[in-house]
């Protein structure tokens, strides 16, 4: 028998194995490849209601109409978060700007919005800032790809941990990545 080694991230496997809350309705823009791995875990249908990853600007506009907000902003995450989901679903919305082949002037960051149907509070929003890769390193597509995968995974893991109230693993993840800041921001 061959040795089997799972490539599915621990955060996602642990979530599927242990989470017993409302099903998750996930929407990611600008990242989300890591979140898509949830469907490869047996039992994911007990945890996941749906997952959307509109990527092109046109796909995002098809969801929300004409877009006058910055692609990665608290206003945009609120607009995307207003999508229809089934009653009782835990709605998680993420919009992100991460490392790309072209060096962007702006910051690498994400907005994460969580609306828990069993908590009587307003939806919560966090702003996550990531350290930006130096411009000179953008010459290597391999380096860019590795950094992008890391940032995508980090944002997805943080979003899932926030949504499922996993404070201890979240604190450990942030402690292992001191270049990342995560701040809860006002809803409006």
- Strand order, main sheet: write it out: 2-1-3-4-5-6
Secondary structure category: alpha/beta
Note the gap between the termini.
Answer: 56 Å
* Shape call: globular
How many domains would you count in the coordinates? 1
Please state the CA-atom Rg, rounded to the nearest Å.
16 Å
CATH class: Alpha Beta
Average pLDDT, all residues: 87
Number of E-type strands? 6
CATH architecture: Alpha-Beta Complex
Helix content: 25-40%
Query: What fraction strand?
Result: 15-25%
- Uncertain runs are 1-8
Task: Determine the CATH topology.
Answer: Maf protein
**Helical stretch count?**
6
The biggest sheet, with number of strands, parallel, antiparallel or mixed sense and barrel status, is:
6 strands, mixed
Topology:
Blueprint: H1 10-18, E1 24-29, H2 33-36, E2 48-52, H3 57-64, H4 74-81, E3 90-97, E4 108-115, E5 124-130, H5 141-163, H6 167-176, E6 181-185
Parallel strand pairs: 1-2, 1-3
Antiparallel strand pairs: 3-4, 4-5, 5-6
Helix pairs in contact: 5-6
Characteristics of this structure?
single chain, 188 residues, alpha/beta, Maf protein, 6-stranded mixed beta sheet, 6 strands, 33% helix, 21% strand, globular, disordered N terminus
Q: Would you give an account of this structure?
A:
The structure is a single chain. By secondary structure, this protein is an alpha/beta fold. The chain has a single domain (10-185), classed as Maf protein (Alpha-Beta Complex). Helix content is 33%, strand content 21%. It is built from 6 helices and 6 strands; from the N terminus they run αβαβααβββααβ. It has helices spanning 10-18, 33-36, 57-64, 74-81, 141-163, 167-176, and strands at 24-29, 48-52, 90-97, 108-115, 124-130, 181-185. The protein has a 6-stranded mixed β-sheet, sandwiched between helices. It is globular, with a radius of gyration of 16 Å. The N and C termini lie far apart (56 Å). 34% of the residues are buried. The model is unreliable at 1-8 (pLDDT under 50).
């Amino acid at each position: 028998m061959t040795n089997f080694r799972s490539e599915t991230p621990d955060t996602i496997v642990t979530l599927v194995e242990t989470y017993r809350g409302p099903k998750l309705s996930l929407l990611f823009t600008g990242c989300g490849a890591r979140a898509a791995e949830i469907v490869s875990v047996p039992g994911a249908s007990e945890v996941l209601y749906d997952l959307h990853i509109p990527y092109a600007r046109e796909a995002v506009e098809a969801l929300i109409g004409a877009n006058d907000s910055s692609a990665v902003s608290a206003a945009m995450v609120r607009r995307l978060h207003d999508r229809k989901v089934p009653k009782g679903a835990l709605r998680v919305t993420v919009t992100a700007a991460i490392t790309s082949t072209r060096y962007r002037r702006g910051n690498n960051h994400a907005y994460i919005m969580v609306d828990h149907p069993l908590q009587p509070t307003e939806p919560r929003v966090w702003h996550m800032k990531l350290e930006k890769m130096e411009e000179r390193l953008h010459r290597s597509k391999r380096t860019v790809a590795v950094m992008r995968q890391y940032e995508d995974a980090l944002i997805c893991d943080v979003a899932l941990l926030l949504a499922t109230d996993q404070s201890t693993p979240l604190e450990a993840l942030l402690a292992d990545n001191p270049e990342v800041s995560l701040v809860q921001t006002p809803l409006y």
